[in-house]
Amino acid sequence: MKKLVFLFVALLTMFLIWFTCTNCRAIRRDVTSKPVSHERWDALLKKHVSPDGLVRYGDFVRDSAELNAYLRLLESAHPNDKSWTRAEQMAYWINAYNAYTVQLILGHYPVSSIKDIKSGIAFVNSVWDLKFIRIQGYTYDLNNIEHNILRPIFKDARIHAAINCASMSCPPLRREAYVAERLEEQLDDAMRRFIADTLRNRISPNRVEVSKIFQWFSGDFEREAGSVRAYLNRYLDTPIEPQTPISYLKYDWALNEAK
Question: Do residues 155 and 101 lie in contact, with contact meaning Cβ atoms separated by under 8 Å?
Answer without folding.
Answer: no
